Amino acid sequence: MRAVRIDEFGGPEVLVPVEVPDPVAGPGQVLVRVVAAGVNRADALVRAGSYHRAGRPPLIPGVEGAGTVAAVGEGVTGFAVGQRVLALDGVNAPGFYAELAAVPATQVTALPDGLDLTYAAALPVAWLSAWYCLRRLAKVTKEDTVVVKAAAGGVGTAAVQIAAEAGARVIALAGSAEKAAWAGGFGARDVVDTSRHAEDAEVEEVLRLTGGRGADIVLDTVGGRALGRSLREAGHGGRVVALANVALEPSTIDTRDFYPKNISILGFQLTNLQIHGYDPRADLRELADRVATGAYRVPIETLLPLQEARAAHERLESRDNRGKIVLAVGG
């Protein structure tokens, strides 16, 4: 089969198209014929040798994808050859940058009719993360004001829509005027171009927009120094959800920014959650159903063929993308 493999850790240039033997469906596994694979920051970390569960090269990256069932392993029920599915596996890392991937059946979800496989491939990481953080951890309601950081990215555009659908007021923060305006098109009531604000001024703008009260929920998809700002942007009894550190820098916070306001700091990491027993299938099915009915829009900014995985990673690491980057793998 065709695949993209990493033979040594490094930059996007180490993503090399290769021919490798077809995998087989072992006991408890589903063999997925991959049509589309999502491109995520976790993939870039695997490629760079910074992902703690990746193992050593040679490796086929890719933790999410969508396609059809090619075969089922011993003991697997509920799936049929040809069935349309999406799959997520950051724990075992089967590698969706390939025409076939053998995935534990517990990480495979049947898709509703009418949902394009390209859009389905974008759901398991970004959308599931936004869904879990807002619906399960922060418990968003129509009474909340929600700040979404990096609102033009994959997680951000999902979070804006999920919070808006819940009836919350959404304040979308993004790194340019164009990105901020674009994020506003997904249901944010207010948008903030963070490139125009110094760090303290960003906090002041959020406080101004909330009448000095602060936000009920801050979804921090940036990390690093941004976490300190998130705590200052939250109001009394607020919930700050930290789910990334794309800044790749330490987070230094002042305890006085959160304990006097009785703020809850909630951490989220999808792979670790799965290791400790989280079954994502029910949440993924609900997300897929909502996308299929048009309740949510999944913006695909860049769609590239599998052999151009290097260009996909270069686009991802430019931090200039709006929405999701997807690889077209098979037909």
Describe the protein's architecture and organization.
Helix content is 28%, strand content 26%. It has 331 residues and is of the alpha/beta class. Strands 3, 4, 5, 6, 7, 14 and 15 form a 7-stranded mixed beta sheet that branches. A 6-stranded parallel beta sheet has the order 10-9-8-11-12-13, with helices on both faces. Strands 1-2 form a two-stranded antiparallel sheet.
Topology record:
Blueprint: E1 2-6, E2 15-19, E3 29-39, H1 41-48, E4 64-72, E5 84-88, E6 100-104, E7 108-110, H2 117-120, H3 123-137, E8 145-148, H4 154-165, E9 169-174, H5 177-184, E10 190-193, H6 199-209, E11 215-220, H7 226-233, E12 234-242, E13 264-267, H8 270-275, H9 281-292, E14 300-305, H10 309-317, E15 324-328
Parallel strand pairs: 8-9, 8-11, 9-10, 11-12, 12-13, 14-15
Antiparallel strand pairs: 1-2, 3-4, 3-6, 3-15, 4-5, 5-7
Q: What percent of the residues sit in helical stretches (DSSP H or I)?
A: 25-40%
Distance between the termini: 14 Å
How would you sum up the global shape?
Answer: globular
Largest sheet: 7 strands, mixed
Strand content: 25-35%
The stretches of 5 or more residues where confidence is low (pLDDT under 50) are: none
Number of strands: 15
Topology order in helix (H) and strand (E) letters: EEEHEEEEHHEHEHEHEHEEHHEHE
Mean pLDDT: 91
Structural class: alpha/beta
Compute the gyration radius: what is it? 20 Å
Q: Supply the number of helical segments.
A: 10
